[in-house]
Amino acid sequence: MRIVHLLNTNSFSGAENVAIQIIENSDEQNEAYYCSPQGKIEEILKKRGVRYLPVKKLCVKEIRRIIREIKPDVIHAHDFRAGLLAILASKKRVPVVSHLHNNCPWLKRIGVKSLLFRYIAANCSVLLTVSKSVMDEFVFGKRFADKTVVIGNPIDVKKIQRNVDPAVPSEYDLVFCGRLMEQKNPGLFLEIVYRLSSSFPHLKAIMLGDGELRSEVNETIGRLKLENTVTVAGFVDDPVSYMARSKILAITSSWEGFGLVAVEALAAGKPVVASNVGGLPSIVNDRCGALCGSADDFVAEISKLLSDDKYYSSKCSEALSRANELNNLERYMQNINKAYGYALRNKKDVKR
Asked: Which domain does 34 fall in, by range?
């Protein structure tokens, strides 16, 4: 089977990581390709030995060219734009598996994007989502229950733990890991750090990730006089190693599809304090961390973790247990292969 994974970004984050993991763990008889605009992602793909189909811009014309040249059996389109372009380009000649990695706010109301996603859902062969909340919140979600599979994210705890050295002491009290964008709400993270700094004057925090809000983040750090408290590291290749050197992961997202970074922190034996949104409640519980509905909740929980050693140690131990409960790579790949098989069985008038 020949599969082309379509992505609209040229950077590396959650959806890109998932696509690469699927390719790396595909059956040997399958031939999988990663197709996206050229950029930073190319170096990562080369390093990990992934077949790459670069395009200047992901568009209908380029996807049709890829279809002619590669002749894929299935197109696996990751997220909204790639799904829409794949449907328009394939014209049902190649079955499309549409994979939504987020539960974006526009899913909840009727509008241009939600109507276009209804079109994607109606015309794709299989619809994959990372959590039940995605289709529960989608205004047209009930119409497509028969073709929707809640697949989660691939979790290989042993692989995550290869970047973890338990003997390394903590350098940071708090770590933020995600794109600096509206969804991840880095401003809330900085508010939490600022409020904690009055009670913990030697507090150290690090922010991993880059994005359109980088300059705003830097300005906020300056305005709140947090230059000696917060390090903005930008994009890093090995975020888990930074989590291992931090005491607590704080996820301040305004919305979230799954929250793989939470699993990575748990696998590193670190408590996770997270927003109570999207798929995070399926990962984080009060044994291994806490779900928060406000900045006050974040500050209260983190303060207790930093000041009560017994409480913190208990959460660390439970974090490792929770990560092992979530370990699912073999089952995840079985479900991916089932989705491809279903797409092939239900394709109509495929022409090459």
From this structure: 2-154+329-345
Please report, as a single letter, which amino acid is at residue 306: L
Percent of the chain residues past pLDDT 90, beyond the cut: 84
The interaxial angle of helices 214-223 and 186-197, nearest 10 deg, is: 20
Hunting for tokens 């708090």 — which residue is that? Answer: 174
Distances (CA, A) of 277 to 13, 36, 184, 253: 19, 29, 11, 8
The predicted pLDDT at position 169 comes to: 84
pLDDT of 167 above 80? no
Mean pLDDT of 166-193: 94
**CA pair distance 117, 247, nearest whole angstrom:** 40
Mean pLDDT of the chain: 94
CA distance 274 to 292: 6
Rounded Cα–Cα distance for residues 338 and 346 (Å): 12
Domain assignment present for residue 69? The answer is: yes
User: Using CB atoms within 10 A of its CB, is residue 41 exposed (0-12), middle (13-18) or buried (19+)?
Assistant: buried
pTM confidence score: 0.82
User: Is 350 part of a structural domain of the chain?
Assistant: no
Tell me the two tokens of residue 200.
């913990």
Phi, psi of 284 (to 5 degrees): -95, 135
Residues 96 and 130 in one domain: yes
